[in-house]
């Protein structure tokens, strides 16, 4: 169920703050976290970034997942009023992320496991989000975006010998986009209520965002005829499965600027219980009878400016596992509560050769430590003993590194 934006973060600032300050971030990742923030900065923006998530996820002390997640990211923001007849500024943003540094656009995995598999982590399919933000009144910005996922369908018809030699093959593959909405509102209370005089609300900012659930679905249908063994109309096989599920996420945050430092506190509600209904139509995981609960994630982030050109960022979060119970038949999902800690910095370079505007460079690091939780392994595989045939205890850690370069124009 790999889903990098909600598991790690997108840009270095999101990763460094453990996503605590993401709902206030005015960079292009705002198109995913809170599109209202696209209106914070009137300048256009071109951002390129990379991140590398290194996993060491264990069961009973043995590593069962160490494949990294690596993304190349590209983001663009511009004011549509400059290229249209609109008189009111409307800021458009687009962000794309591709797995394995742009070498793998359809990262997808769905399987059963006799030894246990981690639920949250995994490769992320193509990430694509586009949206717009604008100011509606003093200090009040609103935004709307769409996250795009792909539903893939494949149909195979063939004749085959018992030796596996096929003939008269027919293969059709298609992929259709699926759009899920993202909404955001940002309020600077000082600009709204103290526009004519200074007051304590000048440095107070609140935000709320909503991200609808999303997933990537694949459906495969096949028909095989084996002359003399399986006559027409043949043997029909059908698989329908999903990956990269993101629950409905509602985030509320408060940020205050104390002058020498800025503090942001956010609360995130994730509605994982919907996944139970989604898995009932999954032909690979429907027998698991896995139970999920909605969770609340508290996040705290801090920004400390150091002069005019440097800013240091830190954050911490406590993420509870959404899995209830200890068993998921055949699938054998593993997950655990975890601490998330981040640290990073940004630097603004005022003058660069051949460039008319400053350049921003960001670095971010995040560490995730999984707690211990015991799960029971069960399977319908005839090669495994009936009932509970083993127990595993989770443990592990994740290191995430990210860097980006942003050009303002």
Automatic annotation (TrEMBL):
The keyword Transmembrane applies. One of its GO terms (cellular component) is cell outer membrane. It comes from the Bacteria. It is a multi-pass membrane protein. This is Outer membrane protein transport protein (OMPP1/FadL/TodX). Belongs to the OmpP1/FadL family. Gene3D superfamilies: Outer membrane protein transport protein (OMPP1/FadL/TodX) (2.40.160.60). The keyword tRNA-binding does not apply.
């Amino acid at each position: 169920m790999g889903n990098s934006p909600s598991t790690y973060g997108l840009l270095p600032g999101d990763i460094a703050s453990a996503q605590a300050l993401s709902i206030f971030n005015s960079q292009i990742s705002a198109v995913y976290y809170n599109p209202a923030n696209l209106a914070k900065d009137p300048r256009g923006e071109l951002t390129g970034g990379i991140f590398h998530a290194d996993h060491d996820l264990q069961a009973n002390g043995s590593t069962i997942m160490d494949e990294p997640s690596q993304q190349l990211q590209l983001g663009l923001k511009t004011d549509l009023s400059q290229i249209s007849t609109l008189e009111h500024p409307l800021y458009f943003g687009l962000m794309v992320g591709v797995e394995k540094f742009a070498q793998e656009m359809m990262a997808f995995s769905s399987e059963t496991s006799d030894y246990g598999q981690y639920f949250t982590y995994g490769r992320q399919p193509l990430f694509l989000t586009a949206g717009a933000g604008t100011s509606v009144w003093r200090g009040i910005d609103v935004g709307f975006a769409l996250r795009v996922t792909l539903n893939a369908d494949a149909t195979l018809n063939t004749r085959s010998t018992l030796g596996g030699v096929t003939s008269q093959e027919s293969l059709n593959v298609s992929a259709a986009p699926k759009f899920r909405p993202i909404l955001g509102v940002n309020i600077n209370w000082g600009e709204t209520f103290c526009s004519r005089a200074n007051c304590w609300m000048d440095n107070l900012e609140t935000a709320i965002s909503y991200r609808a659930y999303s997933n990537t679905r694949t459906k495969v249908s096949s028909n095989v005829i084996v002359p003399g063994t399986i006559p027409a109309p043949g043997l029909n096989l059908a698989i329908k499965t999903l990956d990269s599920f993101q629950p409905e996420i509602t985030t509320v945050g408060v940020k205050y600027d104390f002058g020498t430092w800025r503090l942001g506190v956010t609360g995130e509600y994730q509605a994982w219980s919907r996944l139970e209904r989604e898995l009932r139509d999954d032909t690979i995981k429907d027998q698991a009878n896995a139970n999920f609960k909605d969770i609340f994630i508290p996040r705290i982030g801090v920004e400390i400016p150091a002069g005019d050109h440097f800013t240091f960022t830190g954050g911490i979060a406590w993420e509870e596992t959404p899995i209830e119970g200890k068993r998921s038949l055949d699938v054998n999902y593993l997950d655990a509560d975890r601490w998330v800690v981040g640290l990073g910095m940004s630097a603004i370079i005022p003058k660069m050769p051949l460039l008319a505007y400053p350049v921003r460079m960001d670095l971010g690091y995040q560490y995730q430590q999984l707690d211990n939780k015991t799960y029971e392994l069960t399977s319908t595989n005839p090669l495994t003993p009936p009932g509970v045939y083993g127990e595993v205890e989770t443990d592990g850690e994740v290191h995430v590194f990210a860097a980006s370069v942003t050009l303002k124009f």
